[in-house]
Amino acid sequence: MGSVLKVNRLSFLFFLAWCLSILLAKSTALERSAYIVHMDKSLMPMAFRSHRNWYTSIVDSLRFVNPASLVEQQSSPSLLYVYNNALHGFSAFLCKDELKSLKKSRGFVSASKDKPVKLETTYTPQYLSLNPFHGLWLDSNYGEDVIIGIIDSGIWPEHPSFKDDGMSARVPAKWQGSCQEGEDFNSSNCNLKLIGAKYFNEAVSHALEGRKIRMNSARDITGHGTVVASVAAGNYVNGASYFGYAEGTAKGVAPRARLAVYKVCWEEGNYDADVVAGIDHAIADGVDVISISQSYFFAPKFNDPISVGSFSALEKGIVVSTAAGNYGPRFTTVANPMPWVLTVTASSTDRWLGGTLTLGMGLDVTGWSTYPYKTVLQNLPLVYKKPLSSCDSPALLSTAPYGIILCDLGPFLERQISSITSSNVSGAILIASTLFELPKTFCACLVISSKDARVVINYAESNIMASASIRFQQSFMDARPSPTVARYASRGPALAFSGILKPDVMAPGSDVLAAWIPTLPVTEEGSHVSLLSDYILVSGTSIACPHASGVALLLKSVHPEWSPSAIKSAIITTANPLDNTLEPIRDLATYLQASPLAMGAGQINPNQALDPGLIYDAAPQDYVNVLCSSTFNLTQKDIERVTSSKNYNCSHPSRDLNYPSFIAVYNDQTIPLIQTFQRTVTNVGKGAATYKAIVTAPEDSEVRVSPNRLVFGKKFERHSYNMTIKFKASYVQQVSYGALVWVDEGAGNHTVRSPIVVCPFVV
Ligand SMILES: *[C@@H]1O[C@H](CO)[C@@H](O)[C@H](O)[C@H]1NC(C)=O
Ligand SMILES: *[C@@H]1O[C@H](CO)[C@@H](O)[C@H](O)[C@H]1NC(C)=O
Ligand SMILES: *[C@@H]1O[C@H](CO)[C@@H](O)[C@H](O)[C@H]1NC(C)=O
Ligand SMILES: *[C@@H]1O[C@H](CO)[C@@H](O)[C@H](O)[C@H]1NC(C)=O
Ligand SMILES: *[C@@H]1O[C@H](CO)[C@@H](O)[C@H](O)[C@H]1NC(C)=O
Ligand SMILES: *[C@@H]1O[C@H](CO)[C@@H](O)[C@H](O)[C@H]1NC(C)=O
Hints:
Blueprint: H1 9-24, E1 33-39, H2 51-61, H3 67-71, E2 78-83, E3 89-94, H4 96-102, E4 108-113, E5 118-119, H5 134-139, E6 147-152, E7 194-199, H6 202-208, H7 224-233, E8 237-242, E9 245-250, E10 258-263, E11 265-266, E12 269-270, H8 272-285, E13 289-292, E14 294-295, H9 305-315, E15 319-323, E16 342-347, E17 352-359, E18 364-368, E19 376-383, H10 394-398, E20 404-406, H11 413-421, E21 427-432, E22 445-449, H12 450-462, E23 467-476, E24 484-485, E25 505-508, E26 512-515, E27 535-538, H13 541-558, H14 564-573, E28 586-587, H15 596-599, H16 606-609, E29 614-616, H17 620-628, H18 636-643, E30 662-666, E31 673-683, E32 689-696, E33 701-706, E34 709-712, E35 718-727, E36 736-744, E37 751-760
Helix pairs in contact: 7-13, 8-9
The chain binds 2-acetamido-2-deoxy-beta-D-glucopyranose (NAG) (6 copies).
């Protein structure tokens, strides 16, 4: 097995521009747009048998608003979906006049226009692997009794990762979903692994105005959903690799968990109404965790479908895990900042791919490569000549003498790689200042570090007969430091919720081996290669998210009584802030220590999350209190829109929440800053325990914890404490951070760590 990923920035941006143009094209008076309409279902007139009847009659009545629409049948207002779980209401295609009239209808709460959603995958070329999380696997029986709902672009059901070999026939009893038939997809495409598959195309179909959807079923033709599903819950597949790289047994984080896929992302575009419908069904079908590797690429709104749908999921005890976005490394770019979801950013792991250069005099140098063929370059002349060594002109390269060309460190490595790929040279050695986050290579090229390059250049310059060999298709497990925060990953703070630290945690996201559509040939732009494979290496917070979703799923299986907040807390307080050199994790954007605004609490640490010692729990009303103090200035009606319920109000707005991390945001007016956080922890260890607070204060801050010792007499006992930060800085504009760690003084060996951030509002 082996393949290439057709994922280049150009086609990706093109895809986004296209989504936008679909939406922007609709603006004249009779043109209709999709609206998501929130209704107060308690106001349904008695005459209607069901909400669907009621909503249908409302939409039907709108036909008379605009006489022109009566003439032309095709353009009457139409109902898309009825929603019962993610929110209460429906979606419909309406023009401006119809919307105006709808607003006067009994029970109307609000309407919002459909916006494009974005899949979270960047193609940052760096290769990683999954970790086998043994302790949690054993305790959860690999997730056999739990179900994950994937809201994405569908699935390639025949892929070996989705076979049900070894899966028990006892599908969890609460499962209410089904396998929806469609183009190239029938009920026999589901099995004991893939227990559900549905697709939601009403909004996209409408937008296409009669043009056909290319794959009108839950079948994935873009690859994104297949990748995400395999990372979260792929079955074991032996001998998987990407052209011989990263070879081994492929598996998801929860390899025995059941998969339910909800296709809401289409090659033709993604629409809010379809996304809400997918989440609505996932909740009703009985999934335990919902994984959403998507976000809005405009500033998040409090009532976008992911916010609204995930709040309903929270109320039903469903954990929602989302991608932090790939808009980094600028600050305040974090997507999906809602306090009630887990927001996951991306890291590297310690596996990297490449080959070995052997110089004629016997020295070995390892370097980066993803050259997809088994070729070995054996004892070729080593050519180092200026201006050839700039390696940025295919024409010049085609005049090169036979041999391996040694290129100088240039400003544009990608351009050098593409020049070499489109020339006829037998092989090349390129130089980069570090070997992190390098592009994929489709040429017989090896990228070495500038440190290693000195000896290679010396040898080439001082030997007329210099020669070299290169072996490709090697995987190395020694990347140091690792993990590191990916450069592309979005950063906090989340301006909408400035009292909540986001992102929450980091998970492997760069160059992860994942299932791919075997018939989808994928090649980098400009390379003369078109290859197929069952597996690819992909990067992005889209890939990090399903890792965390899988961990949440396993935790849910072991601790079914834990609330979504408790599961999040366990994942956050056990995350590891150190790398494999036992130093603080670094940020690839700066090569300096990563702040919690980049990595949250650190790298997820599944086996520790199994037994976190203490948890910070929170109820839905607590989240509403935070929403009430957000920058959105919400009214009671807005709160009803987000929560789809009249049970919540803003009588106790609060910027703080019983959250497992701390952030204090200041501005010119608020320094010196004194802020107190109140927290309550629940003992989920085996029995009595005593914890001691250990604080690393952020620079220029004084941190007090009171009380600084917590004595628990038994399991599930709760204790409160206050933490006060006093921050004095001579001048603004710097992020400082530290941590509060509750250390179990007994045999329990728990450390419950919360990052602390003090940062200016505008960083
Ligand atoms: C589903 O499709 C496959 C392949 O097209 C076919 O062999 C099978 O009989 C179909 N199953 C059902 C239940 O329709
Ligand atoms: C590479 O070699 C082929 C065949 O020898 C030739 O047709 C082609 O023009 C060459 N490409 C370049 C960029 O020189
Ligand atoms: C919210 O209210 C505050 C104070 O009334 C105001 O300064 C701010 O502009 C408002 N924000 C929005 C988004 O309306
Ligand atoms: C707000 O909600 C609380 C709890 O549900 C309730 O006790 C209170 O009366 C509500 N306040 C208002 C103004 O609706
Ligand atoms: C925390 O501070 C609040 C407000 O000052 C106070 O009412 C509460 O008793 C304190 N809690 C603890 C555990 O000290
Ligand atoms: C406590 O846990 C750490 C890892 O978290 C481990 O290295 C250490 O050996 C443990 N100590 C005891 C006494 O179990």
